[in-house]
Records
---
Amino acid sequence: MKPPSFEYRRAASVDEALELLAAGDGDAKALAGGQSLVALMNLRLARPVTLVDIAPIAELRGVSSNGSLRIGALTTFTELEQDPTVAQAAPLLAEALPYIGHPAIRNRGTAGGSVAHADPAAELPVVLSALDATVTVRSRTGERTIPAREFFRGFLMTAAGHDELVTAITLPPATDGAAFEEFARRPGDFALVSVACAVSGGEATVALGGVSGAPVVVGPTAVDSEDAIDAFAASAAESIAPPSDVHGSREYRQHLTRELVARAVRRATAARRS
Amino acid sequence: MTRPDKYVGKGIPMVTAGRFTRGMGRYVNDLPLVNVKHVAFARSTEAHARITSLDVSAAAAHPGCIAVYTADDLFPLLVNPYWGGWEGTARAEGSPLARNKVRWVGEPVAAILANSRYEAEDIAELVDVSYEPLPAVTDPEKALAPDSAVLYDEWDSNTYFHDEFECGDLAGAFERADGVVKRRFTAARHTGTPLETRGIVAEYDSGLESLTIQCNFQDVYLARAIIAEVLDMPPSQVRVASPDSGGGFGVKLPVYPEELAVACLSLKERGPIKWIQDRQEDLIGTSQHRDLIIEAEAPYATDGKMLGLKVRIVSDGGAYGVPARGNTVEGMMAAEDLVAGGHDIKDYAYVLDVAMTNKPPTCVYRGVAQPVTVFALDSLMDAIAEETGVDRGEVRRRNLIKQDQFPYETATKGYVMEPGSYEEALNKALELVGFDEWPEYQAKMRAEGRLFGLGITCGAEAAARGATWYGKRGLPISGQEGCQIKIDHTGRVYAALGTTTQGQGLETSLGQLIADELGVDIADVRVTMGDTDRTPYGAGTWASRCATLGGSAALRASEELREKVLKVAAARLEANPDDLELADGHVSVKGAPSTALTLREVARIAYFEASDLPRDIEPTLEAVHHFDPPSATFSNSTHVIILEVDPGTGAITFHRWVCVHDCGTVLNPLIVNGQLQGAMAQGLGGTILEHSVYDENGQPLATTFMDYLVPTSLDVPEMELHHFETPSPFTGLGVKGVGESGTVFAPGAIATGVADALGVHVDRLELSPSAVYDLLMRRGNGDAGSVSA
């Protein structure tokens, strides 16, 4: 479990990082917290020729809010957890953060890194998909903003080109209600199923994690009664064909999806229904 | 800390704790080495295949490559390939690197030497192997079928070992019975995952013609025997020493192909060779465990008594017999221990088959087969309770061996069991959880839609097996244990044992015992272990044997040394040794404490003024003793668990976990409780989380800690531990084994608890949430999400 040899470059600015990524022509990878990439390199499943360490780039750090919430790509999960703006502006994200790995992972892991890596069982892509958030990427030729629901393309695949760097994510203003539910074999593990639920105007939208190559969005659907919630949960479970693996069968994951969607929607609509 | 009157029985913190918590332990990987060459292995990607070509030219051409070795290069060195096993097991020629055929994914095919492990791994990727795939044999029952592909060309089947046994009047038991319970129990595969993986440094000195192995083996003398035999070297020219070791649990007992290859390479290269196993290599190549099938038929009477037991046992032995225990141990111990579990079973028969399959070998892991035998026995107890209407506690009470039956010879004559507190432990545990009120409580929770269950396991753990078990069956494994103790010329104490330490705290618990006997401060007792050049012949660390057997040897050596100290002092004080006592660092005349010598003064006489001593007292203060138990020791346990199953997720929540334990005399309650808690956590892990999964092609699916899940502190509930102390008449100080019993009793307690919560039979030790969901579906209403009372 030692990585093949690679070239290590430290980028002092976004522009320098973008130059290095472009020069790598597909064989360069940006290194942020390294919580996923380095493990993959040790398993020799990722073999970048050049690692572009973007850690020194201060402009990629930090959170700002003007109704919507802008998160710099290098902001760590711990920083997000400790930032009162996040709890206020993005309660769904705040609820999901403690599910991300363990404290040691959250200390190093970054928002941009999680998005760029695009693990289908990771929490952040699911939250962004539920909220219809956007991902901002930059290359030498310019900047573009991609809806999260289009950004995550499949297992570890995104809409970003190899010369593009994720620089920020932007979450829309908080919805009327929100809830995050997840079940993993152990606390801190990748989710068997995760559900991010956002409720607006009596309609629920859920994004499902761990059930497909990319987050699956279901809704918006009116959830004005217990029966409607159960029907919505059942339809969400029927809409997916999750994989069977060592952690659970397809049938089990579908069952879990139904259960967790129902739990999430009930919590997200609790205030309104009472 | 001021010295207590007596150390034994007190919760003395581990004397090694400071060193380890400050990061000052020295493990194999920390050894300072000069000019060391690092090994990486090219490994098989196929579960079962013929090697049609093996091209190492690209690897050899890599600028960092020192050498590439294949089986053809090493095989001539192996004068006596010893792929060991019990008498009666099928034999095959072995090789540390695959020859002609590969038999499991991960089997080493070539060894690469480089100046760093990084480079060695780069080069290993360049080894080009072509395979002709053969059908993968992954199911032990199918492996035994006549139409199965066969792993070893020289055999006509995959049967590695077959045994049949019958005793008593089993036919009569079936005739007398009011009913018969028939069940089939299976257990998933898992492995030990010590925090420190395997590692070895081998260095051949061509001037001395001697080989020094530093390796985290649990049994250094066994390793020496195997390595010397394989390399055709005199054992006296081979030194095997274990530095600090971070966990073992049994998986560091075998002498694996990689370690043998490294030993061979050091002979070839005449210098230090190092291999540190990484976690992926651990999860695909270290021995694995359980994977047992027990089909049981138990005739019973309406009063709840089981009248006899008939079983068929199939053990998935994996791809090869790992030296020296082979892969029969799980199966043979299941056969023996079903009737050594504390239940009075005299009419018994078993048929046992150990099958070869294309998976890593099964060998010994904490508890060996007993987690499965206890699961089977307690599930049978519950089945009999269900059939007869006798309550689950009472069925167990009626089947436990009665106090007046001890010493109790087991039906197979495998063991003689000493008395314990079987019924008291059961009664106490049931009382602690309010067993009498349980049905009412369970019904109340059911009415609220909550699935509560109560699980029970109770019985014996066979530990510390002596020479009768291994040595008499042809294996180079010593059942005895040795201890040498020296008091140095300043009165400080040095003890050396053939055991090894993986973090159990033996330096502390044995230090307590020795300090008490020799009347010294525990800070003045240094305990070392596991070095064939420096410690007495012993059998290492396994089977909960170190405090029982090592402790017994240490006690005897201490007693002899104490007598010698008194004799030396008596000569100087012109007193009768019987009138002297040794305590608190002084030898004094009983009743006249002012007439005294310090131990330091006595030591000085023994080392430097021996001319003053009578001729029948030899100079120096040294003693060595060896101890072999009559058969084994048996601690007893009852575990009662109250758990809850979430029908929405299949998750299990533990509300109570009571363990009432009796390991005889408790040397150190902190260590004993730590052993129990760690072992229970491993039992929980093996049941709920840790599964070495293989697909039908023999490909391993759990090869990292993302897929092989060990319990963390967040997964392990609070455990309520209580003790009885029924001393063993067989060992020094009355100590019985404790290291494994938590692992032995935890799985069955969880499984019977889940069965009680769901009202279904639980037949398999593999209770992941997904598996629990399958059980929920089996409840009959077909809708796990809407469970009703």
Note: Chain A has three domains: 7-53, 58-171, 177-273.
---
Amino acid sequence: MTDDLDFEQELRRAAELLDPLPEGMRRHAVEAFSLRSLDAELAALTFDSLLDAPVPLVRGVQPPRLLTFRSSALTIDVELVDTGRGRRLIGQLDPASPAEIELHAPDRTRTARADDLGRFTMDDIGTAGPVSIRCRVDGASLPVVTEWMSI
Amino acid sequence: MAVPTDDTAALVTAAAAGDPAAWSALVDRFSGLIWAVARGYGLRTADAEEVYQTAWFRLAQHIAQINDPERVGAWLATTARRESLRLLRAGARTSVTSNADILDRAVDDTPERRLVQSEDAASEVERARQLWQAFQQLSERCRELLRVLIASPPPSYVDVAAALGMPIGSIGPTRARCLARLRELVAARGITSGSAYP
């Protein structure tokens, strides 16, 4: 029905006027291209407790968030804990090995070391925005990066 | 009105080979869709921006491994949908209307703006505002579908289906039903509508 098409177009115009993509967002999207890692293996998200094992929310208490990322040779398990003064990230590499760890957000990076048992921790990681973990195991030729996601 | 799919595939292939202009073209083509998905699910500005960023950052990671370059729109729409649901599950609050100050902005003209703006433009904005308010009264399901359908540029039904997790065959009938309902809401407010914009 052309009436429906016209009406839809009128709505489209209203959305463009009243609910457009905010200023500056397009530039972030363009920048994402230059920030991509050319030489890194991607670790896909294979488990997210938020979606795969939801726990009923007890008032005021957030259960720990558990995430698993897998690449061909490395699994990264992540636990996010609300300490009451911020969030702590606890990571575990499998196979267990020492490594350089970077937590990337679009505008900042934090670093940590995984110990001989493949464990690492970061405190006060914040709550906003997507993140990606970059992990270079000592002696490995290629780093592993996790899929960008909201934590 | 759908975007030519072989064009999209060529852009994806070029971007995968490192062409930043191809990437920018993809951003122009699909930004509206991603934004519409996040807003369709009712996410507030900051959360919708997070969905938008996540989708593009994730595509940058995957661009060289996209199995079906011509379906990147659906890939982005699915990513936006999953991230929106993730945020909602994590407790992101929804907003029935777009930001209240967006609605007020159209009314809150400065004297300078009133001098510069033609009468036509001012009444167009006012009608859009009324139409948008009527839109907020639709059911959640209709708001979700229509908000994605009215993205700019207009999305293909393949992309709409991915955005909402619904079968393509359902889109047409649901769209018709929701537009009819919106016409009723618009009529009840006494707004004239249905006329095409030039």
Note: The mean pLDDT of chain A is 91.
